[in-house]
Amino acid sequence: MSSNVNCNSNFDDCDLMFNEFASAFGSLDLEGFTRMINQLFNGSNQQLDSSSCSPDQLIQVFNTFDCDGDGCINRDEFKSMWSKWLSIVIKPKSALIVVDVQNDFISGSLGLENFPSGVNCSSIVPIINSLIDQCSFEIVVYTLDWHPEDHISFIDNVHLRKVKQLNGNQVDGNCEEKSLIVNPFDCLTFHIDHVGERNQIVYPKHCVQSTWGSQLHDQLKVIKGAIKVYKGTNPIVDSYSGFKDNEAITWTQLDEQLRSNGITDVYICGLAYDICVYHTAKDSLSLNYRTIIIDDCCKGTDDKKIDSIRKQLTSNGCLIVQSNQIEPIVSGTIKPWPLAYHATRNLMNSK
């Protein structure tokens, strides 16, 4: 059967879609549900070269919305499915999060070009600019590391706090003793009064508030009305994620801004792939945003670690695609099944 349903339709087409796929008995059985899913997703998945809905996943989603367990989705259950799931799938509202595209991470004190991988981070800037120009994102967010001078992550500041361990080995005394040799990227355990122990990788001083190194790259397009999220402002805790610090003591305004704008889909790009991009994506998934990483708009420090991160995020429902695939997903023309399935996870868990 060919459908009359416009898959980019408004909320008012709920009844139209139900009538198209419902059986003669006035309800949506598993066969009708399967036809609907195949029509909405299969073509999209082929274009994205990703797997389609598995039979087990299809039955899981069907049972989630068959609230009375009678083997059919009636009109009221379908309306609930529409409001909680299908409307998001058909008409997503998307945000682009540009993570830490700052001078110090490109060519400054912690520039990725100085790592063994020697990546050219500035190459992602024109691609990000093109996405901002071409895609209809509801909002664009720029996150920035914004550290005070005495931040715990700076190797220059190790002497300011008591050190209990260095790379897993116990340390007697504190770093005022000149015998303790600490190198960049060592992992330290500090003891902080009234707080306790805190693990921290130490880095060269970077992204100090209001310095050149903390500024966004001068060729990065920053649109009018964009949201800027400043992180890492607490001197005694680092912040990799754009959502919260590493100890979840303080949350930024990012989640609140996304929810107030009705955002369903979060697109993430920037620096560094295996650190701040990864933690931002991980938190986005945990907060139940449909999460997409724009792979060729990210650069990182360790290719093997990035490969592992891709697998981990994908297994948790993240979609990883290239920039030339983004526009039809943002517009809703292509509806990737992994994103749709992720959007039902909380509903399945709460049933």
What does this structure look like?
Helix 8 packs parallel to helix 9 (303-315). The longest helix is centred in the first third of the chain and has 19 residues, at 30-48. The protein is of the alpha/beta class and 351 residues long. The strands form 3 sheets. Strands 9-4-3-10-11-12 form a 6-stranded parallel sheet, with helices on both faces. It has helices at 14-21, 30-48, 55-65, 75-90, 103-106, 124-134, 254-260, 273-286, 303-315, 326-331, 337-342, 345-350, and strands at 28-29, 72-73, 94-99, 139-145, 162-166, 169-170, 187-192, 196-201, 227-231, 265-271, 290-299, 319-321. It has 3 domains: 11-90, Recoverin, domain 1, CATH 1.10.238; 94-150 and 205-331, Rossmann fold (3-Layer(aba) Sandwich), CATH 3.40.50; 155-201, no CATH class.
Describe the secondary-structure layout:
Layout lengths: L13 H8 L6 E2 H19 L6 H11 L6 E2 L1 H16 L3 E6 L3 H4 L17 H11 L4 E7 L16 E5 L2 E2 L16 E6 L3 E6 L25 E5 L22 H7 L4 E7 L1 H14 L3 E10 L3 H13 L3 E3 L4 H6 L5 H6 L2 H6 L1
Parallel strand pairs: 3-4, 3-10, 4-9, 10-11, 11-12
Antiparallel strand pairs: 1-2, 5-6, 5-7, 7-8
Helix pairs in contact: 8-9
